[in-house]
Amino acid sequence: MRMIRILTLALAAIGLSGASIPAAAAQVQTQTQTHAQSTVQPAAACTGTAALTQLGFVPSSVAPGQNSNLKGTLANCTSQPVAITLLITWQLLGTAQNCFVNDPTYMQETLPASGTLSLGGQYMVAGTCTASGVQATVKITDAGNNVLAQGTAVLAIEQPMPVLACHVTYTVQSQWQGGFGAAISIGNTGEVGFGNWTLTFTFGGDQKLTTVWGATGTQNGAIATLKNVSYDASIAPGQTISGIGFNGTFTNSNAAPTGFNLNGTLCS
Predict the structure, then answer these.
(1) Does residue 23 surpass a pLDDT of 90?
(2) Which one of 42, 150, 177, 235 has the largest count of C-beta atoms within 10 Å of its C-beta?
(3) What is the DSSP code (8-state) at residue 78?
């Protein structure tokens, strides 16, 4: 008769940033079985006394606030039962703020003769965690503390891309027969700064740039391009720069321009 033993452990979690956030939920289970388990990668050869033939996270990448399962297979490469100590350690990768990492977890088990032990559990990524990933390291030792097998698995954390957003105000300040003067202000309404900016827009009439200030200007057909000068080269999040403008000419129409685009980002 086949014996099945299941061990469930609650892993303690600590907040690296010192923030008071509920502990991350993580569980590790081991289950004795007599056949190979299909998990996250093709099984490696069983050599020596014992081997960690499979190890990985499923799915291999998640966004903050999501979960992933750690899965692995430990194999006894001999025809005799082997007493082992299983150590699992966790490490955050990248710049980690508002994240959790589990305390090291020890388990003493007996690998059945010519059998396997499956390792499975769940790792929960905090919703505001900034780390690029979590690495789990599994080490198997015998009663003499000799390392029988060791392996690592990395769970990638998919951080959201920072928001790029901008707002452009275009104002005709004066107009005369066949000519006009306009002012432009550029606001950074996103999460990251704009540096060495290029602003493009499309004239709504038959306007032509003549004199530009606060930027350098060129025109190709109806499309005008303004580029920063040295003193207004960067626009920080929440900042609005002004002092940009130009004089222009027109024959039939001085309709307002459209399609303001800053460094490839369409502005409101």
Answers:
(1) no
(2) 235
(3) S
Residues paired with 38 in a beta bridge: none
**144's tokens:** 């003499």
State the Cα–Cα distance between residues 60 and 79, nearest whole angstrom. 34
The token pair at 239 is 């900042």
Query: Is the distance from CB of 237 to CB of 192 less than 8 angstroms?
Result: yes
Closest residue by Cα to residue 201 from 151, 255, 253, 137 = 255
Sheet holding 26-33, edge to edge: 6-10, 26-33, 116-124, 67-76, 50-58
94-149 pLDDT, tens per residue?
A: 999 999 887 888 889 999 999 998 988 888 999 999 999 999 999 999 989 999 99
Q: Answer for the pair 70, 105: CB distance below 8 angstroms, yes or no.
A: no
- pTM over the 0.70 mark: no
Cα–chain center distance at 158: 3
Which residue, among 131, 268, 89, has the nearest Cα to 188 in the 3D structure? 268
Numbers of helices and strands, H then E, in the chain: 0, 23
